[in-house]
Amino acid sequence: MTEKTRKILETIAAQHGTTPENVEHEMMEAIRAGMASPDPHAQALWKQICPDGKEPDLDTFLTFMANRVDMMQSTQENRKKKYFS
Known about the structure:
By secondary structure, the chain is mostly helical. 79% of the residues lie in helices and 0% in strands. The chain has four helices and no strands.
């Protein structure tokens, strides 16, 4: 696990009065539940996250999601610039 992921878990744990280990456990359970979803949109997203179909580790998942959020924010900013230009 990267230091960045460890710090994220520590921050979330402190905010919720629990341990980083519990946060990691809960996040991995959520990943497993998401991967098991029969929803076609969810499955398409999981194929992007882990094309091999194997459960991603927390670093891989968080990196993917952070990059996706960055991309979505950039897209929104570009739309605002075009709209207000």
